[in-house]
Amino acid sequence: MLNRLESYVYNFVKKNPAIKKFLRDIYQGFFSLLATKGFDSDYEVIIRNRCFFGFHDKSPWSPDGKYLLGHSHSGIGNEPCESIPFVEVSIFEGPNWTERKAISKTAAFNWQQGAQLQWLSNDEIIFNDFVDDLCVSRVVDASGKDISVYPFPVAALAPASRYFASICFASFGEAMPGYGYSFSGARRSGVPRGEIIIVSVDSGEIIYSLSRNYLEKFSDLAKRNSDYFISHLIFSPDASMLAFMVRLTRSGRRVESELLIFDVRKKTISSTPFKGIVSHYTFVGNGKLLLFASYLSDEGFYLFDIESGGVESVGEYLGERDGHPSSSSNGTVVYDTYPDRRRRQTLFIWRGGPEKAEPIASLYSPLKFRDEYRVDLHPRIKEDGSVICIDTSVNGRRSLATLRIP
Predict the structure, then answer these.
(1) How far apart are CA 141 and CA 191, in angstroms?
(2) Model pTM?
(3) Residue 359: Cβ within 10 Å count
(4) What are phi and psi of 97, to 5 degrees?
């Protein structure tokens, strides 16, 4: 009965964020008093306190699996990012990646996506920072030695390739608090709002640019609204496709989104049937996307075939609730849920096909972690499918955890 009532209320208020937030806080505040704290899982869970990785669309493991990458912080993890001068860039090594070593630090970070930490190789890391007030990307080795600096921040790195996509994080953060960086004072972005540039790691030069004029040829949202912004970029495993969103925020309304695909080899953009609501997605292989979005008159999880344009609903296997999916090379998918009425977050694994996703962990998230300070699990699955890495607040601090799975 409660689930049906919750669904009814959610569908009624989902287009009004202010009302939705007000009702959610009252509802969860009451039920959290009755909630069971801690975590519940049949699998080994190792928690690294006061650490986090960031989003679900990047791997924290070095390609050879030797290192686990993350950020370290000294607080609780719900402080305004503007009040924190920097967080440390740390690597974890040894058995179960429990030996931490801080190798650098960065002032360009947020609680949701961190500093866009990514592995360039087994020994090279790229991430965002501010240098002389310009938002840049830096490359360091596993010891922290500086290798190079690019005058553009990294948003998505092409796997096994030597280029990355960059966007304006100033406009991203203005539109969606919690996703940008602190651009106070003279700090500035080297990428114009609403554009994407692709940069060569070897030369540092721009090798392709998706300008506003060009994007507006393919995006209805960009045509109609000059104040759109770009977010959530992800390359396919073979680096041939770049998925991204054109988005718009309006006061008192839900974020409006449109999913587009850039073919890196053909240098062409194609639209998709997903407009209005698009939240999270991951590549499953090189030619398909698993995403939570609105399609026709429904909202849920779908598999989208990029080449054919075919759309398959997989909500009966993954459920009706939004989550952050991540896929391994063998097609195994992990995803999470937002906190329920008792502030419990559930981690699921789906091995594809007609089998329903299996819940493998449930974790409590204190009420002090919400809105732009929330701690989504943002699960990342290791390439071989053996380990899952999540962010969690189960211990009352923003922390980094791993679970070994069979």
Answers:
(1) 25
(2) 0.91
(3) 14
(4) 50, 55
Which residue carries 């041939």 as its tokens?
240
CB-side exposure of 257: number of CA atoms within 13 Å?
24
Q: What is d(CA 104, CA 101) in angstroms, rounded to the nearest whole number? A: 9
E strand or H helix at 327: strand 326-327
Q: How far is CA 224 from the centre of its chain?
A: 27
Helix (H) or strand (E) holding 220: helix 220-224
Order of strands, sheet of 326-327, starting from the edge strand that comes earlier in the sequence: 39-41, 358-364, 344-350, 333-336, 326-327
**Secondary structure string (H, E, C) spanning 274-301:** EEECEEEEEEECCCEEEEEEEECCEEEE
**Residue 281 token pair:** 């997605």
* Contacts for 3 with CB less than 8 Å, ≥ 6 apart: none
26 vs 254: CA distance, rounded Å = 20
Mean pLDDT per block of 10 residues along the chain (406 residues) reads 54 58 58 72 96 97 97 97 96 97 98 97 97 98 97 94 95 94 95 97 95 95 94 96 96 90 96 96 96 95 97 95 95 96 96 92 96 97 96 98 94
